[in-house]
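Thread title: Can someone regenerate the structure for this chain?

I was given the following input by a collaborator and told the matching structure tokens would be attached. They weren't. Posting the sequence so someone can regenerate them.
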Amino acid sequence: MRFAGPILSFLLLPAAGHLQADLGKPYSGGRPVTRDDPNAVRWVASPEYWNRYLIQVWQFQTDAERDLNQYRSVGLGAFHIDRGWKQEDRVAFATKNQLPYYVDHAADKGLLHLTGRTGVNEILRKKELVPRPVSLSDPAVIGELKEHLTNNVSTTKAGPVLAYSFDDEISLGAFNTPAEVDSSPATVEAYRRWLRTKYVSISKLNFTWAADYVSWSEISPLSFEGIRKDHAKPPFSNWRLAPWMDWRAFMDTHFADVLGDLTRFTNELDPRIPAGFVGAQQPSAYGGYDYNKLARNVQFIEAYDIGVTNEILRSFWSWPEKRPRVQTWFSNGDPKLDRWFHWYYLLHGNRGAIAWPDTKGHGPWFGENGIAPFLQENSDALREVQGEVSRSILAPESRFETDAIAVFYSMPSIRASWVTDVIPHGGTWPNRSSSLDNQCQSAGKNRVAWCKLLEDCGYQYNFVSNDQVAAGQLIEDGYRVMILNRALCLSDREMSAIQRFSEAGGTVIADYWCGVLDENGNGREKKSVGLLFGRDGRMDRGYFGGGDQLCELNGEKYKLPYLERLDYENSLLHQGIVMPERVQPAVRIREAGNGRQVYLNLSPLSYFANATRSSKEGETFRKILSDILVPAIGTPTITARASSGNQDFPLIEVIRWNLSDSRQLIGFVLNPTRQGSINSIGEVTANIPTSLRVKALHRHGWENAINLRSGEMLSDGDSLAFDWNPFEPILIECDRFLENR
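Best answer:
Regenerated them for you:
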């Protein structure tokens, strides 16, 4: 690696108070994506008996009727019913024992989640378009899904049901694995109708696609293989992804619309209880996981926390809706990690967890051999995390407090980024499994890295969809900062809205390749790309270690440790941080009206690793970002410094819950990067001390503070100090300082 020249000097940014006057509105805390969408499914609040964090035991290697006393002895009081039809006895048992449950496979299995029986092997590892064996455009398939829902919901709604899940790990194909479905005639005809609605005239489609169609009936979907060879190298200005991007966007829309139809149908059967699905994947080019669409079409989700799906949903389902979301708890038998898991996700607003009661090497959790020892050790902790603190956090009036920072969620950019990821695979791209994508997807890792950067700097944020940005909600909702994270695709409307935001006093921070493509995945002219940030017009003169390198996170190296998968050989560095664009400075800042536009030619992907976060490189990245954020938004209201001896420990997060107009709950929680998984608790490769000292500073002073876990009243003042076991939280309730930032 080589070192680049000095960074550009930072310009002075306006103070936070000046920004508020320029932007005109105080920060609202964000809004649900469903608020202004008349087509979104209605909000169904969680039932009144789901007013606290609930761990729901999946019925595998256990039986609730047999093991109920064992459940209760370790503080567990909820379970799951599979399907439900003709299980009146189990519903009666749950009702009698006040044992809430969620219903899984309410629409059966094999339709939304393809199995060997329903033809999943017929669609995998193929370059060409194939019909989905069970097409979601087939009225008979939709009818069968609704028949299952009718049978299962009609039975289970008689008891204390928490939510209805249509199915587990649903997908257009198989998880996020590339599967070019669905070329069935009905789906292709629906695609043509969708294109006609989008483009109106075929001449406009021809211009966008560089095509020469005469009629809509000529158009057919395009597999990725049809464009792959033309999109493996720069310049971006020559890229034309539109025919494939439109097909992927349509299939995501089609999938979400089917789920919306099933949600509304389930609400007709039982209007009191939210409906959705479990086993959700991270956003990717394949699978159907566009959360901007899914969040509008379901009322309940369990999403594997890969690519920060949890924070995306927290943002899209923000107050007042707070639609229920849960996590799956795969214990590895480590009681410390289990305690951290539940506290972390409760403090991030999850309403519970689904317990998968099988841990290799530790025997069944329950049964004739008794309760697994690691579970017994945590009985008090499991009761506490499901107790009064969780009632306060999950109360309807409680709000997760964020700073006025918007992080960009752009599905077009995620798709375009995936195209760069698969370059090393060449013609073997259909073999890129979902698990490999989870480990080696640059857009997902970039998104996680930005979240950890902001959290490590002491800030909280909301994800804002590209639709919301285009509609002007950055200004309307009072945001002060916009993060354009790996935002390869920007529409003209989005660029205009972002420009207006910065001219009104906002600070826009973008990382590399921002806006090189439009919303359809077509290359922009160099002049257009430079409009937002005043970048050098020489956009195509080399990336990373050489002229043509576009893949940053190499999936062909998936067996290597994460940092060794990053292809950075011969890349330029700024203070140890990789500069992706070889002709741009590390940081470019320019004034735009009353605000600023900051272009960070620095890749945050290495910051995904806990080792980097704890290194000099991580400290440098935090310093660069804080120097931009503090003038734009002010210093964090509450900061925490954790240390072991003389060594700082950066993996601590400050979480703020507004309980009322006058009181606030502050949580300090261990915040490692976790490589999420669909079948384990996930990899946490961090050196975590067993004991730390925490000093917590409040910009306005701590007043009437109480340690909720010990009951100790704390002295008023600017700072508090604690001894901290990092696998458990520090929870403080205090007076809330009212301010509009």
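The chain is about 30% helix and 20% strand.
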